[in-house]
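TL;DR need structure tokens for one chain.
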Amino acid sequence: MSLFNTAYAQCNQQDQRQAYQCMQQQLKTDKAKMNKLYQRIYLQYDDNNKLLLEKSQKSWLNYRDAQCNELMGSLTYGALGLASGFAHLDCEINSTTFRLKELSSLIENQ
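>> reply
TL;DR here they are.
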């Protein structure tokens, strides 16, 4: 299994530095989408569900950080150049994409 999945494949049409910048931009775009979607959901919820959503988001952020910072750091220990950065960015992008799908399902189920 490759460490580099979706985002890397989309940005891999360029040299390494451009691909890295492309992935950074993709992550920035996805985070903005996620924040906008989160706010949309949050505004529709009552106080109890708002607390549950906040708890869920904080738990997801903790999971993402553990997965992408600690695990990917361990897996790419000793990697040279941008390789470890690519792995970390790809992990964050894939995690964020999955979270976007989860949050989208909350809108669809209302």
